[in-house]
Amino acid sequence: MESLNLDIDITAWWSQSGSWQRLAGVVGTSAIALVVANKLLTYAGDALAQRRLLARPERVVIISRYPEPGKCKTRLIPLLGGEGACQCQLHMTNSLLHLFQHAAPGEEQRCVELRYFGGTDQQLKHWLVPYAAGAKPLTSVWRPQDDGDLGQKMAGAIRTAFSEGAERVVVVGSDIPGLTQDIVSKAFTHLSDEDFVLGPALDGGYYLVGARRTIADKLDDLFTGMAWGTGTVREQQINVARSLSIEPVLLQDMLSDLDEPEDFRLIGSCFGCSADDFKMPRCAVIIPTLNEEGNIEECIRHTVAQATHPERLDIVVSDGGSRDATCLKVNMLVADMATLRGASISLVHSVPGRGEQQNHGISAVRSSRYLAFLHADTRLPEGFDERIAQCLSVPGNVLGAFHFRLDCLEPSGPPTSWFFRLQMRSLCWLVRRRVIKAGEVHAEKWPRPGCGGGAISDVMPPVAKAWLHPDLRPEPNDSLGVPAGCSPQHTS
Questions:
Q1: Is the Cβ–Cβ distance between 74 and 57 less than 8 Å?
Q2: 451, 471 contact by CB (below 8 A)
Q3: HSE of 141, CA atoms in CB hemisphere, 13 A
Q4: pLDDT higher than threshold 80 for residue 247
Q5: Distance CA 211, CA 41 (A)
Q6: How far apart are CA 126 and CA 120, in angstroms?
Q7: Which letter does DSSP use for residue 487 in this model?
Q8: Among the listed residues 277, 254, 258, 279, the one whose alpha carbon sits nearest the alpha carbon of residue 267
């Protein structure tokens, strides 16, 4: 019997039959279909979630302006400067967003909407998405303000809320430092039985207005003809409401808005910081150490020398139990404050472990707004404190870092083998491909008051870990574009 020859040229058969083209087409089409389907499902899910959010019976509307230097809180510029006034606006709005995001039990039925002026939708998304993605996502709606004066803006926001299903709407400004969740809850309680609520301001105006759906047909006339910005606005508003057969209810809490430098001096205690903290915020540099006697003194002196405002600098050395002269050298620098250009230095002792040491260093920080984490063998670039403030002053930036660089790769660096340099270049490339393109990290300590606590996040490589509030996502982040020099000993 003649045997069968089963030797088949698979490659030839595959190419001649066209099977690979058909298979590739099926796989490619399926992949594209899956991507498109995923996008459509995501979009549909987001649209459904937003519709449910907008249909909640209670809505808080915050009237605010996108924080831009020179364009917001202009009357505070003589006291705070353009950038400081911008940061004050940002901090007050963030405080309200944080306040309403962390609702008390029974208040989850509220939708929070930000009506903004200035900025773009992309800028607002960069700023507000971290709030909308919280564990209790109340704030996920932001819209530009309606045209017209303040009355038309408020009437438009209330009218839109009613048309989307809200039964009770409270409108507040973003510049009321004394506003609390309890005050807003009182307003909603009144709106269960009354049609119109006002929160009286000390200057003769009002800081809060609440309306019930029963007066939706009177909104066009309710806020018309007011002398906005004067001390008679509240009285005018009461008279107009009564002329429309609406009896206003006044809250007992009388608050002040923040418009003039005198207002800041009166209610600055609400911020837990001073005017100087907005003009040039303090920056704390936290340095975890373990047997760093060969690096720590140069590191501290170099950090102070590179700071634009060393008098606003707090250096915290968090030691993990060094057995060499590290602590002795730090204490000698503390005693020699005259050479450190006004910078503050402190030494704290912690259990060993970089994360534990950094957290312990954070607990020793009292008044600094920004936190920077530094290795003892790392050298920061010139003006690093201003660069940090500039990076974190952008709404939505809560974490940033300097580009990662190794001294052994510099022309003036120590002689090393080509293979070692190749390894270090690969390391730099890998670090820059991670979550944050950086070496040394900085974060904002109080972008949202009342967060409480802090933890080391493992989203970054070992050379660059950062402290984040527990309710903040690691994105969006920013890189300053200026390298921080580092020796390779901490990159293993």
A1: no
A2: yes
A3: 26
A4: yes
A5: 36
A6: 10
A7: -
A8: 258
Spell out the residues 6+ positions from residue 403 whose beta carbon is closer than 8 angstroms to its own: 432, 437, 438, 439, 479, 480, 481, 482, 483, 484
Confirm if 281 and 368 have CB atoms less than 8 A apart: yes
Question: According to the 3-state scheme, what is the secondary structure of 283-315?
Answer: EEEEEEECCCCCCHHHHHHHHHHHCCCHHHEEE
Supply the pLDDT for residue 489. 39
Kindly state the DSSP code that residue 318 receives in the 8-state scheme.
E
Q: With pLDDT > 90 as the criterion, what percentage of the chain qualifies?
A: 33
Please count the CA atoms within 13 angstroms of the CA of 411 that sit on its side-chain side: 0
Token pair recorded at residue 428? 């730099």
User: What is the pTM (predicted TM-score) of this model?
Assistant: 0.73
State how far the alpha carbon of 483 is from the alpha carbons of 43, 264, 382, 410, in Å. Answer: 39, 38, 10, 12
- The single-letter code of the amino acid at 226 is M
Give the C-alpha separation, 141 to 114, whole Å: 6
Q: What is the CA radius of gyration of the chain?
A: 29
DSSP 446: -
- Are 211 and 160 a contacting pair, CB within 8 Å? no
* pLDDT greater than 70 at residue 261: yes
- 3-class state of residue 65 by DSSP: strand
- Exposed, middle or buried, 292 (CB in 10 Å: 0-12/13-18/19+)? buried
CB atoms within 10 A of CB 235: 12
Tell me phi and psi for residue 165, to 5 degrees. Answer: 115, -5
Q: How far apart are the C-alpha atoms of 488 and 462, rounded to whole Å? A: 12
Q: Tell which residue, 316, 281, 303, 314, has the closest CA to residue 389.
A: 281
The predicted pLDDT at position 53 comes to 75
d(CA 321, CA 243): 75
Q: Which of 224, 220, 164, 158 is nearest to 191 (CA)?
A: 158
- Is residue 365 within 8 A of residue 445, CB to CB? The reply is yes
What's the pLDDT band for 352 if we cut at 50, 70, 90? very high
Task: Answer for the pair 270, 178: CB distance below 8 angstroms, yes or no.
Answer: yes
Terminal-residue alpha carbon distance, the chain = 69
What span, in angstroms and rounded, lies between the C-alpha atoms of 488 and 473? 29
* Residues in Cβ contact with 213 at an 8 Å cutoff, skipping those fewer than 6 apart: 162, 166, 167, 168
